Structures are given as C-alpha cells and as structure tokens.
Amino acid sequence: MRPLHAVILAAGMGTRLRPTGHSGPKGALVLHARSIIEESVHRLLRAGIERITLVTGYQSDFYDTVAGSMPD
After folding, report:
1. For residue 28, what are the domain limits?
2. Domains in the chain: how many in total?
3. Mind giving me the DSSP string for 38-62?
4. Separation of alpha carbons 67 and 72, rounded Å
5. What pLDDT does residue 19 have?
6. Which helix (H) or strand (E) holds 6?
7. What is the pTM for the complete model shown?
8. Across the strands, what pairs with 54?
9. Residue 36 backbone zone (phi > 0: left; psi -120 to 50: alpha; other: beta)
C-alpha cells in the first residue's frame, strides 16, 4: 500500500541562502522552470499522492499563491 498523503514542511526563513543573494523562502528558488515548491507538488501528484498538506510560516503569501494555482 503506497501513501496517499504527503506533508511538505515549508515554514523556514531560508537564512542559510542569504549569502547567495536569495532573500525569499527556499521554496521560491527556481528548478527546471518551476519553483522548488511547484516542482515538489507536481512530482508528488505524478507519484499518485492524492492529498498534499503544505505547512508554511515565513512569507506564507507566496505559498498561498502557489497553492491557488494547483489542481484541487
């Protein structure tokens, strides 16, 4: 039996990335033309995960926008 629910922890501030010039959350970094969080969600959906919970904190408005653009 494979898992049907995934939890993505995305509440950090990304402070270790600041020396590279990135000032936003890690999930906002672009990987393969998508943000890391978008890529993660798409991969989970392709793997058959039916429910994804995104735990946010810092800059949660960015994640709200991403979540709003994803299929239900």
Report:
1. 5-68
2. 1
3. HHHHHHHHHTT--EEEEEEBTBHHH
4. 9
5. 73
6. strand 5-10
7. 0.77
8. 8
9. alpha
